[in-house]
Amino acid sequence: MVETLAQLKTGDQAKLLDFTKNPSLHFKLLSLGVLPGDLIKVLSCAPFGGPIVVKHGERTTFAIRKAEAKDVSIELQTPEAR
Amino acid sequence: MNEVLESLSESIGESHLVQLPLIGLPNAGKSTIFNLLTGGFRKVSNYSGITVEAARGELLTNNQENVTQYELIDLPGIYNLTPTSYDEGVTVSTLLELGPKYSFEKAIILLDWHRITPSLGMALGVLKRIGKKAIIIINKDDDQEVTLEDRSRLQRALGVPVLTISALNTDLKTLDHFIRLEHPVVEENSIAPLPITPLSASYLPSSLNGHKSLNIIPGSRGEEAVANEIDSNLKEARRILGGLQTSNHQRSILSDKIDKIVLHPLLGGIIFFAIFYLIFNAIYSWAGPIMELTEQVVLMTGQWVGDFLPNGLFKSLIVDALFGGVGGVLIFLPQIMILFFLLSLLEQSGYISRAALISDKVMSYFGLGGKAFLPYMSGYACAIPGIMAARTIPNQKERLATIMTLPLITCSARLPVYILIIGTFVPSYTVFKVFNTQALSFFFLYFLGSFAALIIAKILRLSAFKGDSSSFLIDLPQYEMPSFKAAFRQSWQKGRSFLRKAGTIILALSVLIWLLSTFPRLSEEKVQGHTPQETAALQLEHSILGRMGHTIEPVIRPLGMNWKIGVGLLVSFGARELFVSAMGTLYALGEVDEESEGLRAKLMAEIDPITKKPVFDLATAWSILFFFVFSLQCTSTLAILKKETGGWRIPIITFTYMLILAYSSSFLIYHALS
């Protein structure tokens, strides 16, 4: 069972549930226009096990470190739900 | 750090002009608008954190009669009013008019149509605090459309005037008219203080604690209050925008496709190295012919002018100090312009944030993060903007580790020295079919400096600056087609400031070097019976600089250097390029016959009077190169280190460790090669 953003693989889509655990991450995500309940897609994982690249909506792309992605809980979307 | 903020607030406040702050998300096009309105050449790029110092400029249209004299202030980009670094702190304290020095009648909020939701969220937060003092400009692409209905919807919802423009292709008149339009100012009843966490407050000037516009709330209650504030702005923004079609889907898909390749775990790494190798190669091979041409022109002009002058001291001053010293530095203009041209293209394209992300993991092994990438990257041009860009690093210890190692990054002032020495002493041939040995040596020196910077940063992060790393969450802008015009402008601007430096500081110091190496004169009896060649050599040794060189010779002998190189090293502590101009002057003075040769040929031909072997061999050449890789020979860098850290401690420590590193590595490489 996939539970956090850190566990997602390239191409996965998910619904964000909660990211209030880490306050600075929380502020930053909100400022980028991201809210719990939104859908995201993992575009890629950077070379050398670096940050995860996440697409939110049609416009926003951001990168987040694996360690911080652990603080973002998600719900993996099954292909039917997409 | 408070010193920085104070000096910043000074630079923002002192003026008779009416202040007009310009705010927006990082990379929203503020600098483009700033350039348009002021005619100023503000660097435009596609990466957050480029504007670290508030830039100011008078509006071009101030010269009309009876108009308000506005001064536009380009503030660092913000996502909200909760600062997470010093550069954001500058913007927030300006907007909240914290302190008597900050005040304005009107502010421009720039909305990025690409990222309209977060832009609007930020704008709503700002409007809550500055009320109707704001006017809004929407920045869009040429191929996007903002309907009248969209605009009036925003205008109604925000209650302030809104204008739509396309930053790359807009009419200055319309923009100027909009800015100067008188808008009815509605008095705000009472503005609630901004909730802020103690951490965020630490990025604001400390004298402002307890200011009426701030409500510093400690603990989880503060975090909750800040989150609520941003959250409600975002929800409000979404409500206003509901159903608005803003995207240019085709471009977005293309951008994602590029990212698939560029951020691919394996390919991405290869592309990363390929891009940077290409830059070094370009500097080396493309600039080569242009450089030789410039050198020929300088030489021929020098000879031509020399023919008109009577023999004597004045001729020596013109030919040796002016053409030998200044001309020797001038020939590196093409390289510098090519470097900045390529860096500008890269910055505009949006690749820099990808590079930050690709490097984040590697940087984290050294106790830094992807946020240190831009400061380091700027360091390749010059350490000074790099050290200032480090203000965007939220974590204080990471920031200090970054700025203390930044001077190790190979800056453009080292370029003339590297090119002179490598071009003269490293034989050029092709290895593995594609790589040129000179370009590889060049790449190696850049690598060596960067690697040393990271190792020292790691040591610092394990000892003096131990502690947690800052978080890394970076916004990736869409790829943009870089503008060659902007890149050329950027490169020309840097070229011009290089020329200005050559025409002033380097000229003055070249003359000084000439004076010190020409006087005192030898008496007539002493030179009798010597050939002109020997006389020139004796005269040089007799001079003040010659004696200084001889004094320090014992210290640099172990590095394989003679007293002339010693003189070059001494003067290079003022500025690195002076090494080349000192060499140019010293070798021009030693030469008597009129057969003019370039400095490179002279260096190769010089024979040590004692050993009867060439003075410069490969070992000496690499010894000089290593010294320049590691040592901090730049008074401006020391000054900025003092300014940014608020004392002499950090600059002194940095200077000392780099000198030790330089001396010992030169010693090692010299003995390994000879």
Could you walk me through the main structural features you see in this protein, from its secondary elements to its overall organization?
The complex is a heterodimer of chains A (about 80) and B (about 675). With about 80 residues, chain A is an alpha+beta fold. Chain A has one domain: SH3 type barrels, CATH 2.30.30.90. In chain A, about 15% of the residues lie in helices and about 35% in strands. Chain A has helices at about 25-30, 65-70, and strands at about 15-20, 40-45, 50-55, 60-65, 75. A five-stranded antiparallel beta sheet of chain A has the order 4-3-2-1-5. In chain A, a hairpin with a 3-residue loop joins strand 3 and strand 4 (about 60-65). Chain A is globular and about 25 Å long. The mean pLDDT of chain A is about 85. By secondary structure, chain B is α/β, with parallel strands linked by helices. Chain B has helices at about 1-15, 30-40, 85-95, 115-130, 150-160, 170-180, 200, 220-240, 250-260, 265-310, 315-330, 335-350, 350-365, 375-380, 385-390, 395-405, 415-425, 435-460, 485-520, 525, 530-540, 545-555, 565-570, 580-590, 600-605, 620-630, 635-645, 650-674, and strands at about 20-25, 55-60, 70-75, 105-110, 135-140, 160-165, 195, 215, 430, 435, 475. Chain B has a six-stranded mixed beta sheet, sandwiched between helices. Chain B has a two-stranded parallel ribbon with strand order 7-8. In chain B, strands 9-10 form a two-stranded antiparallel sheet. In chain B, strand 9 (about 430) and strand 10 form a beta hairpin. In chain B, helix 11 runs antiparallel to helix 24, helix 14 packs antiparallel against helix 15 and helix 17 (about 415-425) runs antiparallel to helix 26. Chain B starts with a helix and ends with a helix. Chains A and B meet through helix 1, strand 2 and strand 4 of A and helix 4, helix 8, helix 9, helix 10 and helix 13 of B. Strand 4 of chain A pairs antiparallel with strand 11 (about 475) of chain B, so a sheet runs across the interface.
